[in-house]
Amino acid sequence: MTSLPSPISYIRHPDNTPLSLDARPSLPPNKPPLPLGLICNSLQELANGTLVEISSPHLAPDMRSLGQIIWCRRLGDRYQLGVAFYSSEDLYTLRMMEQLCHIEHYRHILDTEGQPSTLEHAAREWVEKFAEQFPTEGL
Question: Does the pLDDT of residue 39 top 80, yes or no?
Fold first, then answer.
């Protein structure tokens, strides 16, 4: 197994928000990754070096980001993936998509606590409470 350079920090994708990772044929990047990556779970094992197009069809159907699998670890019946990014545009898009996913996750938490909320209300509250701490390395 080849070791690939890793980002310095990661955004952890919430498990209860669907994320699509589609393998893409392409040449691997010939430069070091940006300092911010993504950690997400998958039912499918993906090999190190695999280029993937990441999207969240439910929340942001028009947003897509290209990354590279840099590690894959088995966790019970699924896999935990580390994804690196090489373009500021892909990383920016991924970060925006992940903010939407984290807001949806927060809305789900409010619902389970008996505080039903619209996505807009949850977004305002999430921004007030958590946006300042959301990773920005490499942007």
Answer: yes
